[in-house]
Amino acid sequence: MAAPGRSLHGMRGMAAVPSYVVMQPTTLCNLDCAYCYLPFRAADRRMSVAVAEAVAASVNPWAASARFSVVWHGGEPLAAGREQLAELMAPFGPEVEHHVQTNATLIDDAWCEFFVAHRMRVSVSVDGPRERNGDRVTRSGRPAYDRIVRGVAALRRHDLPFSALAVVNDPAPGRAAELYDYCLDLGCEVLGVNIEETEGVNTRTNAHDPAVVTGFWAELVAAWRRQPRIHLREVEWSLRYAAAVLDGTADDLLPRRLDPIPTIAYDGSVVVLSPELAGFTDPRYGDFSSGNVLATPLHAILADAAERTAWVGEFLTGVEACRSSCPYFGFCGGGHAANRYFELGRFDGTETEHCRNSKIRLLEGVLEHARNHQSPGA
Ligand code: SF4
Q1: Does ligand 1 lie within 6 Å of residue 351's CB atom?
Q2: Does pTM top 0.70 for this prediction?
């Protein structure tokens, strides 16, 4: 299959209206995972209701005309407590879909009732069986695995569907099948897989042998094809892309403009494109924010964020460099801002270890699986 990146015309610039926003109800996390990127996870800085009201004033009209989600992220969003989370959710209209990304350790029956009452969709972070969760520890350094599993058990007791998000720091042979089989038992409906990234305060290397990473993705596809009971986020996107290339519609696959994905930090500051940049400062780029919802409506911030935020302009230059140089552009769309910044120190570079691990070798792995399983003579 020819990768048609260079001939792609679509997707230029950044859209003014997102499809979802990420909200940080608190900077605090009750865990202290070794690979975490968050700089202030030991501090409990809380979002005020005024911030949520300001965000909702822009979000509610968007949600009235198209599907729209608010993703409560952290820190650990459940560490804010039910009462505060309910107060922050109250300004959002009934059309808004609420999602929460949680480490699951605080989930109990009361939280499950909260999820039901607020029609909240849950995604839990779990990295596979116990021995793969060694990086996930409490603030006192104890393994968090049993608490994660207890939280998931509560979700299952309440028949709540949930997604899982797994970080893989060693994509060695056997790990992909192990992870997939584990998730079949866990009972999640959707699985997202992240090869560990070097970003934020996590400076561990994410460089791996290319063949090993390609083999990891190929093995994951094979495991999924044996029992395709879970939506496998990365693999399904790869297959959609491969099908679009084959029928000549790949140019229509990426959105016309990049989704700005604004992250609203606890204090109302808005960082577009990469939640991982929130809370960081740089002599060249300042605090990466494009404004604050307590001073300017979110829709007004997003209307000209690309022009007014120096690093965003630099990132869009990098996306254009990807378009003209990378055969995977049509699949990837130019990667993530935070990975460029934390790996390359700037935004207008192109390839990163992250895009090699999670874009290039993902697609190669899917193709490797297809090659290994094509019928003789095909
Ligand atoms: S981020 Fe990486 S994989 Fe994506 S288009 Fe750019 S160079 Fe290619």
Answers
A1: yes
A2: yes
Q: What ligand 1 atom has the least distance to the C-alpha of 5?
A: 5
Give the whole-angstrom CA distance, residue 329 versus residue 78.
Answer: 37
C-alpha to C-alpha distances, 305 to 283, 302, 310, nearest whole angstrom? 19, 5, 9
Residue pair 4/173 in contact by the 8 Å Cβ criterion: no
**Ligand 1 center–CA 209 separation, angstroms:** 18
Give the containing element (helix H, strand E) for 303: helix 298-303
Ligand 1: which residue has its CA nearest to atom 1? Answer: 335
Best of 197, 317, 341, 359 for a ligand 1 pocket test (most atoms within 8 Å of beta carbon): 359
DSSP state, residue 57:
H
- Report the C-alpha gap between 45 and 288 in whole angstroms: 19
What is the 274 CA–ligand 1 centroid distance (Å)? 16
Q: Residue-wise pLDDT tens for the chain (378 aa)?
A: 444 444 555 668 899 999 999 999 999 888 887 777 777 787 889 999 999 999 999 999 999 999 999 999 988 999 999 999 999 999 999 999 999 999 999 999 999 999 999 999 999 999 999 998 888 888 888 888 999 999 999 999 999 999 999 999 889 999 999 999 999 999 999 999 988 777 776 776 777 788 999 999 999 999 999 999 999 998 998 888 888 888 888 877 777 888 999 999 999 999 999 988 888 899 999 999 999 999 999 999 999 998 889 999 999 999 999 999 999 998 888 888 998 999 899 999 999 988 999 999 999 999 888 888 765 544
Distance of CA 56 to the CA centre of its chain: 22
Q: Residue 354 C-alpha to ligand 1 middle, in angstroms?
A: 9
Alpha helices in 49-159 (DSSP H): 49-65, 82-89, 109-117, 145-157
Helices (H), 310-350: 310-325, 329-332, 337-344
| 347 Cβ inside 6 Å of ligand 1 | no
From the CA of 310, how far away is ligand 1's center (Å)? 21
Q: What angle do CA 50, 20, 249 make, to 5 degrees?
A: 165
Residue of 323, 340, 351, 354 with the most ligand 1 atoms within 8 Å of its CB, for mutation: 351
Q: Is the CB of 280 under 6 A from ligand 1?
A: no
